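Give me the fold.
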Amino acid sequence: MTETVLLVGGGGREHAIARALADSDADLYACAGNRNPGIARVADGFESLETTNPSAVTAYAREVDATLAVVGPEGPLAAGVADALDDAGVYAFGPQEAEARIETDKAFQRRFMERHDIPGCPVFETFEDMDAACEFVDEFDGDLAVKPAGLTGGKGVRVTGDQISKEEAKEYIRESDYERIVLEERLVGEEFTVQAFVANGDVRVTPAVQDHKRAYEGDEGPNTGGMGSYSDATLELPFMDEDDYMEAVEVLEATVDALEGYKGVLYGQFMLTADGIKVVEFNARFGDPEAMNTLPVLNTDFLDVLTAARDGESLPKLSFAPRATVCKYAVPEGYPTDPDSGARVTVDEDTIERVNERYRGDGGESNAVADGGSSPEVQLFYASVDERDDGIYTTTSRSFAVVGIADTISVAEEIAEDALEAAGDGVRIRHDIGKPDLVQQRIDHMAELRGE
């Protein structure tokens, strides 16, 4: 039987999901508030609708006779879209609203970790009284992360001793409109992400990825939804070892054991510190950009994961190509604080193809090819853009990403950088992501923290 899969969401993460399903034995339909040209190109149908409206999403699912659904972004999960699809008889690969609180409510997340003795929980307190929160800032011996309890698109966290002073933290707390605040000890180390497919009690993990949240090169500027990321040809990253990776996996497994009935993707954002793994946060879906690092190297058919989850079977063991990836985002001018929305975006896709042809099979372009490895390649992922009759336009978020894929991080970065020649005017890029000197800084930082 051919499955009909409904994909909810229109960003770069969802384009990666769509591409992972495009070669499967599935009919793919998608819905989003923006028309993502990359998704529309591979889908059998695309509907523009408000994805946080459960009734609208389930109506479209019925219209296309969907047998499965994948809910991409956190907004629809928080709105109960997975609940509505499940109730309508369409299995949603994504947690229901109650389980999605592991991401959507950071106060709940920390109390949940404390209650269930989940390893890696930092020292924290939660506040509804902002004056009391400011008193805690004054009294705490050390630096703090200030986190709004709800969703902020990756842009709400402020860290004293790094981004702001304690006085600025109190000003931020008092002037914000947040109803609840989480204050927790500042974690010092190197951040990384491990994403897992979860269903029927099974946890299937993917390679570690390091995202780059800060807006500008050299890790300067405000936090963003993510300017780019990289992964290695192994499960772990260059600044960590296999034991570090497995410690993170054990945290995910303990969390799933405590989250009865969880289904979908569980994303653990971790800090590797001198004292081991700490949990920065959990997300209840694929990361963006991290999905664009992991799904292109997934050998296992993603549709097989979805059908096994729905049918109550063990999830298939995952196989990944031993290849490194580097993702670099192009974002609107002014992003994230004052993005230029509604500007026309030009992406020269012929440039992407020319780059691929240059790296394909001539043996002289990279060490990977010369050493007998797989030819490098680059993939283009459209993100939060809107395709109209006269072109593609920016929204208030990231526009598109290129992902270099090769046997080493350095070659993956090289091909991603070459592909960025496809970007037209009006976008900004962090060119330093994945470059050898930045990766080496991470290695040196971790070695220094560990006293090596």
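The CA atoms of residues 239 and 443 lie 4 Å apart.
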